Amino acid sequence: MAATVVGLSLNVVVVCQSVPVTRDQKPPVCVLGAGLIGGSLLRAARAAGYPAWGYNRSQAGVRAATADGYDVTGDLAAALTRAAESDALIVVAVPMPAVDHLLGAVETLAPDCALTDVVSVKGPVVRAVRAHGLGKRYVGGHPMAGTSESGWSATDSELFRNAVWTVGADDDAHARVWTRVARLAVDCGAVVVPVGAEDHDRAVARISHLPHVLAEALAVAGSGGGTLALGLAAGSFRDGTRVAGTAPDLVRAICEPNRDALLEVLDDTIAVLTAARDDLRAHGSLAKLVEAGHDGRAAFDTVRRWEITDIRPGDHDWQARLRDAGRRGGVFTTLRT
Amino acid sequence: MAATVVGLSLNVVVVCQSVPVTRDQKPPVCVLGAGLIGGSLLRAARAAGYPAWGYNRSQAGVRAATADGYDVTGDLAAALTRAAESDALIVVAVPMPAVDHLLGAVETLAPDCALTDVVSVKGPVVRAVRAHGLGKRYVGGHPMAGTSESGWSATDSELFRNAVWTVGADDDAHARVWTRVARLAVDCGAVVVPVGAEDHDRAVARISHLPHVLAEALAVAGSGGGTLALGLAAGSFRDGTRVAGTAPDLVRAICEPNRDALLEVLDDTIAVLTAARDDLRAHGSLAKLVEAGHDGRAAFDTVRRWEITDIRPGDHDWQARLRDAGRRGGVFTTLRT
């Protein structure tokens, strides 16, 4: 497998040399999946000047995208053959359960293309990519954007404006692919945070997957109070349950693949709630929880980002240095050519 | 105590007869506490044509309200004496820990006035009101409105527009006071839901106090992930922790007095989360939680209100009939004179 990977890497260098990319000519992008994220990426990439086309499994999605003037096909082989011929960056933009099928097709039809994804979890994608021998061409991504809507009808070329977009910085990341993925994210209006797969998954368990779980639990508790309770519900319940309006299959596809990290933070949170419950029962006080929560929200409101300027992908130890910078709030809002 | 209460009730009838209220002349309102809710009520009541004045403990609040042209004093005795002289409706608009002190002053200076409150919990207020011998003149209220802001600077005459405002319908509610409180709420733009104190407290534990507790726990979990996690946080975390930005003392004053009902729903919610955690660990699935949560949110999004037209306060068994209607989604958006 290692020999194959090296071979792919060498192939790519040849391809990159044969298709030089200038500032005026953006390299093509092939997006697999034209749902909320993939479809919005198609829109944003085209708006930023990238030649961009896509594949979508459902014919309804293909028709909707085509009707809006986007180049989306239901023919996966055709989309990938075109990607291979034009050295496109391939973006896997489907929920985790559909990733393996697409990677199998990429392995067969476009194994030399640069590869990224916008899936909500990174460890399982990294493992699937490696299992298909595509590891050396892959740098993962995750735009932290979305709504409770889904499908082409919800797509928006401005979805990523000022959103965070993580770009994988594990030790095997290829500098040229890294830069290509990061540039696409920046060109879509996003702020790039470099992060390793494991750090990513632990972080999003806390700030994306746990919010889903708590929103579902709150919705269960509210509806347990029947018409009266739901009729009295106002802003705190509405906001706290907003993401429980997301389609159940999508929530499961987002959260379940991050099982280990989510279990860890769920354990912690159940312990925090149990301690608060016990304090309230024994002493009538929620002081400890409420003060810690208020501090936590204040930390969120005041978290500072700073521009990474001193680390160039490809430099010695660049991946570890990027990961460290990302942990400390470092971002890219622009990329040197 | 019972004899005293009956005496007060008789006194009031005399007062009401001596100060007839027409459609053109709104009865005066005395608001004790000029924070977010009380101050907004002063603004809304005046905008609706009520003679309205208030008391506020802090001189800073008095100055801010006065500067905006509102009649707010730091002299509690003066505010209450004026209330007694003009048969004002007194509105207790302070957090639960400050309620008892104010009721003591009402008992001394204005025991015959109609009395309501806008406190976030009803059982403890009912008990305090009865302890001060004011039960027969009291009908509780709770506008389901607020922000994470507090104090006069956050007040807004439109805060109650289309908000739900519960009005107590326990068996000892006095019909004339009930109507007066409900009319004030409607005139402030609110939708009135009749509800008993116990039903109220169990319902708000689910849709107001639990959201606070879960928001605090989510903020704790997010900040436990440090700068990286907080830097990746987007809409679901922002919305899910919004109310954790509320001042800790205020959150405690809202939640802790509703201990029994909050403990019950916290127990339920910890059990729901524990079962979900166990499912995720054993089967990799969050299906049960996610589907129930989605159903719960859908129930919230589709809850229907209907206008109560066939129950007149003072009719036979009117309080029980109002409570039953409120449980089934019945509201008042207007009140017959």
TrEMBL record, chains A, B:
InterPro entries associated with the record: 6-PGluconate_DH-like_C_sf (IPR008927), NAD(P)-bd_dom_sf (IPR036291), PDH_C (IPR046825), PDH_N (IPR046826), Preph/Arog_dehydrog (IPR050812), Prephen_DH (IPR003099)
E.C. no: 1.3.1.12
Keyword field contains Oxidoreductase: yes
Protein's GO biological process: tyrosine biosynthetic process
Pfam short name (any one): PDH_N
Segments crossing the lipid bilayer: none
The UniProt record lists the keyword Signal: no
Domain Prephenate/arogenate dehydrogenase: 27-311
The entry's keywords: Oxidoreductase
PROSITE patterns: PDH_ADH
MF terms (GO), sorted A to Z: NAD+ binding; prephenate dehydrogenase (NAD+) activity; prephenate dehydrogenase (NADP+) activity
NCBIfam families: PRK06545.1-6
PANTHER family tied to this protein: PREPHENATE DEHYDROGENASE (PTHR21363), PREPHENATE DEHYDROGENASE [NADP(+)] (PTHR21363:SF0)
Family according to the record: Belongs to the prephenate/arogenate dehydrogenase family.
Name of the featured protein: Prephenate dehydrogenase
